[in-house]
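During the second half of the funding period, the structural biology subgroup turned its attention to how the target accommodates small molecules. The most pressing case was zinc ion, which had performed well in the primary screen but for which no bound structure existed. We therefore specified the complex as follows and requested a full 3D prediction, including the ligand pose.
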Amino acid sequence: MAAHDLELRRMPYPFRAVLAICSDLDETPDGPAYLEIMRFLNTTAETSMGPGVGLEVGNSLYFDMPPGQFSYRNTDEAGREMVRALIRSGHIDCLHSYGDLATTRDDARRALDELAGHDCRLGVWVDHGTAASNFGSDIMQGHGDEPGHAAYHADLAVGYGIQYVWRGRVTSVIGQDAAPRLSGIFSPRRPLRSAKTVAKELAKQTLARRGHEKYAMHATNDVLRPVQLRDGSAVYEFLRSNPHWGGVSAGDTARGIGAVLSDSFLKHLVERQGVCVLYTHLGKTGDPRVPFDPAARAGFRRLAEASRRGEVLVATTRRLLGYCRARREIDFIASAGNENRHIALNTAPSGGAIGRPLAVSDLAGLTFYTAKPEVTRITVDGRDVANLVCNPPDQTGRRSVSLPWTRLEFPGL
Ligand SMILES: [Zn+2]
């Protein structure tokens, strides 16, 4: 094999950062409010808040909740049909526990059977409030992965397809999969409160370095880590962030997101070439018919601009995590002749850190620098990728090829 010029780029071309808005649906009043939020974020159609911003933003789901909160069981048949369409299109990607009223293994089984029966698959689990089915033992007080407990369901959830779990860990650090620096959190306009947020984050990092397992993810600042649940199930845990100057929970709603999606935040995220799974609750809104106030709309429009400028790739949580997993686990052999280049990708028969092969869809967006894009071939498990994209030079001056990244198609609802 000749010495070669082939190298994996950190982010899908032309982007320098990736972000997912990871919204827990708590307090979303009803189906119409849920849909209006999704239409504003994912389409450019007219909504109660003006034209949508045309991003790609997922949402979460639960089943058994008290009246007045949107959930699969609380909505009507049309609402359930909407949910199933949004799962199939990839726009609902997270299971946010089974809800407050689902406390047993049978409740879990009923929910998963319902989804699987409609061929609706979710790959991401997000712990919720004080749900007994939570997986987190320290922050979230869950029992979902304790064999023998009434709420034990981890084997069912993993068998159904859950690969990524969130167990309560949140950071103020802007950009994961980058050094754990605290730049961009301090706000000169709010010196006391923001200094306190920085101090809190520093304390987490200090505890992490002293070996406190609760904050281990804060030490490395990795967005993903392979973990074993208490029943031995192998999954990835992920870290969410919310860099609001007042702390991780100060701006974690529809009313607070405008302040979070600031120019300063986006600039720091891009400079650090960071990954962000943004912790929020977009259903917590002052007005169910007009869920986003002018500040929130302006924040989403700033994010849409950063996306259109080719700076921040905005994707659902599931797609972002799949990309991050592929980037760290993809096994490839690169070879170069005088007139050709070949990158042979292998989706890991060993299944990587969790014993499951990468899905081909997780490889979307992978970008390799190459001096000769037009003569570069990429194969996946021995098969040629037919629709490779040749890219012009990026800010480093290097050219590249990408596996195509296609936007999810929002269903006609
Ligand atoms: Zn919740």
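Two results from this model are relevant to the next phase. The first helix runs from residue 31 to 42. The pocket of zinc ion is lined by residues 24, 26, 96, 128-129 (CB under 6 Å).
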